[in-house]
Amino acid sequence: MLLSDLLAGLPVLEVSQAPDRRIQGIAYDSRRVKPGFLFVAIKGFKTNGHLYVADAVERGAGAVAVQEDVPVPEGVARVLVADTREFLALVAARFYDYPARKMKMVGVTGTNGKTTTTNLINAIYREHGLKTGLIGTIENRIGDRVLPVEHTTPESADLQQLLAEMAGEAVQAVVMEVSSHALVLHRVQECEFDTAVFTNITQDHLDFHGDMQEYLRAKGLLFAGLGREAHKQGPKHAIINSDDPAAEEIIKACRVPVITYGLRPPAGLLAQNVRVTARGVSFDVTVNGENLSLHLRLTGKFNVYNALAAVAAGVADNIPPATIKKALEGVPGVPGRFELVDRGQDFAVVVDYAHTPDGLENVLSTAREITAGRLITVFGCGGDRDRAKRPLMGGIAVRMSDLAVVTSDNPRTEDPQQIIEDILAGVRKVDGANYTVIPDRRAAIRQAIRDAGPGDVVVVAGKGHETYQIIGDRRFHFDDREEAAKALGADLN
Fold first, then answer.
1. Domain Mur ligase central: where (predicted)?
2. Percentage of the chain exceeding pLDDT 90
3. Angle of helix 301-316 relative to helix 114-127, nearest 10 degrees?
4. Which residue positions form the known binding site?
5. Going from the N-terminus, what domains does the chain have, and what CATH number goes with each?
């Protein structure tokens, strides 16, 4: 595509220093630049892409987009814009011919439940006969083909490329997790969503957003954008958990029909006769005047909410209730979400991704319901992330557990012992708290399993599906499920 065609109508302040040329690709990382590429210099949180303009040019960039006064060699086009991050989203969508306009787009946002909800919606669409694309924390998927994941929501240029690949492979519906970071940082700009789902909002990412009001405002952007400047035909829907205290704020942002769901009136899709067991949840919900009785292989009250959101997505698309039921009841589970590690032991071991106060409370509430003996919790908090949630999680863990084992969890560039001290500030406020500190996560998991007896439940929280531990700026292989299985093997042999 010619540079002049690529830039036509986009918010460009100035183009200088070179004649028109054909653009072969777009990159925001200079190491990924190839001859003829447009390099977009992004001001990041750890480095500034403007420092790498010379490297991009050396690798063959035919044009560079900047928001700072950075010189470029003669013969290379310089595109000056006000905000290169927003420009990246706009120009990438143009370069890849607006792929989101060619498929149904469903975005799921919220602090907890995004991964499970997207997987459940994806299952419903597949059961309905649609070819789907899935974009999320655990994996990206085109039909049955699995692709790697770097971010919950990819950077805008990567996302547009992925969507173009999906459109090229005749995907009909894309279901994706939409993080608050992605909304604020323009990653999903030019993604025209047809359905947006709000799961809940609780404390997380305040290191990025500053306060809960800004965090909520970020989530609301997905709903405020529904139906604005629409290029696709067909209805738009907002699906909202009406039990969440922030529901009214999200609803106010909507200009499209709203479907609410929850466990309490006035939810439009109201779960009744909820039954939670160690092996799953059951509940009834009325869909278009028809009672739908669901028996899922996912457990926990939080999964009733996730399933209701998926039911609502099916209802929005007029998918038959029988199809919705078959799809949801066929989902065996989601990796790292209340995942059981069973090696024949006489106690339960659960691995879960819970890494927020609300997430941990939900998981421990569910675990308590299936615990005949003691509830033992292994958890830590990630480094270089919201410090304010650490004492909150510490307090929740010791209040809800018979024994809490405080350990390390992706300390990144922080001192693991300081993170633990932040957690203990909340632990020590709880009278009679029973806890131990074992900074080595492998040793912590082994000790918890060694301490468990018949009827106990051991919850290993925080990492879920992750297969790494980040220490400093390096990743080391580490999988809570593997470590639990090894500990059980050692314990049982």
1. 108-313
2. 81
3. 40
4. 30, 110-116, 152-153, 179, 187, 385, 409-412, 462, 466
5. 3-95 (3.40.1390.10), 98-330 (3.40.1190.10), 339-489 (3.90.190.20)
